[in-house]
Hints:
Helix content: under 10%
Order of helices and strands: HHHEEEEEEEEEEEEEEEEEEEEEEEEEHE
Number of strands: 26
Amino acid sequence: xxAAPGVFRQAMMQGNQTGVMSMxxxxxxxxxxxxxxxxxxxxxxxVGRGAAADPDVxxxxxxxxxxxxxxxxQVFSGERFPNVVVTLKGSVLATWGTKSVRVRRSEDGGxxxxxxxxxxxxxxxxxxxxxxxxxxxxxxxxxxRHPPAPLSVYRSRDDGRTWSKQAVKVLPDSKGNAPSMxxxxxxxxxxxxxHKGRLLRPSRFYAGRNDRSKWPEHYTNAVYSDDGGTTWRxxxxxxxxxxxxxxxxxxxxxxVYYNSRRHWAPSGVSPLRRWTAWSDDGGASWxxxxxxxxxxxxxxxxxxxxxxxxxxxPVKGRDILVYSNCDSAKxxxxxxxxxxxxxxxxxxxxxxxxxxxxxxxxxAAGRPGTTSEGWVYLHFEGGSxxxxxxxxxxxxxxxxxxxxxxxxxxxxLGS
Length: 415
């Protein structure tokens, strides 16, 4: 078989399917391509494209059911606003900051943490940190100040070690309103159905400013990208006004579960608990608005709410979600996690993580086949030393918590 010219070989090795097929279809006769060689070329190309994504992103439940464990340590001091994600290599990334946006990395599953790496300075954390499961890249969203404010997006191609600003285009929603990013839970990559590979993260509309008089005009939504994070489209509004700071998770059937903070509601409607909806079109629109009585939206003496965390355990065929917020009658304290085993319909068990100060929080689950496997990570404002803490625990530990009376724990997980 004749050797492929350098440009052809390079296109194959880089996974450049378009380039390979263009050369094949244009009659690249100097290569004297046979049918066998065409298949080999395209196969190598497709492997190259999928190499980052297809170490299994979903695995089995058993690693989350080891002996119950909870561990916690401080990762940042001062400032605010947490996110946490786990990269395809299993590195845990905790992002943070109001004056500058920084990240700390753990390559050993959360046992130890490297020094803080600056993503942007100055910068205001926009939440929505997203791992692209197709490329392995990580995207961080940075606003110039408390929004509405200019947005910058930073990309890491080396597992969070270095970051560079990239040009992006964010399109307004159907009402002509441009989204703001602060301060939502991390984004996700869709894994199922015709929108597989789509990047999706929660966002919001501030109606000009974060002011009590404007709250009835506020709403949450989401932004999504089908080109790896260069162009972002904005979803239809979440079907409840007065919402802000949201979470989302894709379920095993491809539906997207959306869970939102609400700091204003019309007379007769409660903003004290969370509000949820669903998407059947990859996060482009939302339906089925429900009041989730089981989950608190911050301290129950205030209708202002609090940012919460959400993650789905990466277990094939099961929809185990974990949610975090403060579980208190008064004040942002008693950081707690709840577990759902039916994709967010019921939340039968909860467990206290930290009784002291606990405010904004973010959750991520470990990746199969990595040092993070079997762990759930909670990055939250507060702890004994202030700043932020990362707690890591497993599902066995959560199952040892308090039954809420809202649904049942599956029999295979204990009664």
